[in-house]
Amino acid sequence: TSVISCFYYIRFVKIMYFDTPKKWILYKPMDREKSLLLAITLFLISFFFLYPSPPFLVSHQMALSLCL
């Protein structure tokens, strides 16, 4: 089975890095609303990654309120 998996992964790497694409993907510019939503989401995720205490405290308080 390791020979089969090795063949599969080598073929996968060959397709990803060495074969030229048959069709190029063109992306349209993003709307203003979508870019604003993406920026807000990125900010919140970064904030909660760097300072995770607020969501933990809120969830802890919610769990305590369910127990009482």
UniProtKB/TrEMBL annotation:
Q: Which UniProt keywords apply?
A: Membrane, Mitochondrion, Transmembrane, Transmembrane helix
This protein's record includes keyword Transmembrane: yes
The residues that cross the membrane are 35-52
Q: Which domain of life is it from?
A: Eukaryota
Q: What is this protein called?
A: NADH dehydrogenase subunit 2
